[in-house]
Amino acid sequence: MVVQNEMDKLNLKVKNIKLGEVILEKKLTVEQKNNITNSLELLGFEIIDDKKGRIIEKIKNLIIEAVHHQNNNAKSNLSNLLSNNLQHDYNYLSNLFSEVEGTTIEKYYIAQKIEKVKELLVYDELSLSEIAFRLNYSSVAYLSNQFKKVTGLTPSHFKKIRDDKRKPLDEV
């Protein structure tokens, strides 16, 4: 909505808009491109105009979508998900991602999963077993080991620290 509003303010006709991508009806002039860049940067957005950068953003968006917004019910593997959606060989995507981001797709995916685990732990609505199942971990032990490897804490210790920082509502 924010990006759509900025496009409207600049009188630019949008053909299609979705997370990380805007397709306009007409090619931009240099002045229009500068105006968009400036207005979106003020809002914390960044224009990615090169092909490699767009592919990297699409990889990130697909991973974020898979981990954070679909409860990971689809048991498809990551390489198939990315290859099928981006129409590129996974080896090409993996090498490109590593070259540009300085980390692997797998490490980025794991980091997103751990962030989702943290979020679910803080909400305190699911047991660790349910979280492991929801995020397609083979076991609670595997989730716990990966969580500790990434954060330095066990899930239960993370949860305890978070709970200790919370104040009861009557003390807020």
Concise account of the structure shown:
This protein has helices spanning 2-9, 30-42, 51-69, 78-86, 90-101, 105-123, 128-134, 140-151, 155-165, and strands at 14-18, 21-24. With 172 residues, the protein is mainly α.
End-to-end C-alpha gap: 33 Å
Global mean pLDDT? 84
Q: Say how many strands there are.
A: 2
* CATH topology grouping of the largest domain: Arc Repressor Mutant, subunit A
Tally of helical segments: 9
Strand content: 5-15%
Superfamily (CATH H level) name of the largest domain: Homeodomain-like
Radius of gyration: 20 Å
Percentage of residues assigned to helices = 55-70%
CATH class of the largest domain: Mainly Alpha
Shape: elongated
Keywords: DNA-binding, Transcription, Transcription regulation
InterPro entries: Homeodomain-like_sf, HTH_AraC, HTH_AraC-typ_CS
Protein name: AraC family transcriptional regulator
Pfam family, one: HTH_18
Can you offer a commentary on this structure?
This protein is mainly alpha-helical. It folds into 2 domains: 46 residues, no CATH class; 114 residues, Arc Repressor Mutant, subunit A (Orthogonal Bundle). It contains 9 helices and 2 strands. The chain has a two-stranded antiparallel ribbon. Helix 3 packs across helix 4 and helix 3 packs across helix 5.
List key phrases describing it.
Homeodomain-like_sf, 2 domains, 172 residues, sequence-specific DNA binding, mainly alpha, 5% strand, Arc Repressor Mutant, subunit A, DNA-binding transcription factor activity, two-stranded antiparallel ribbon
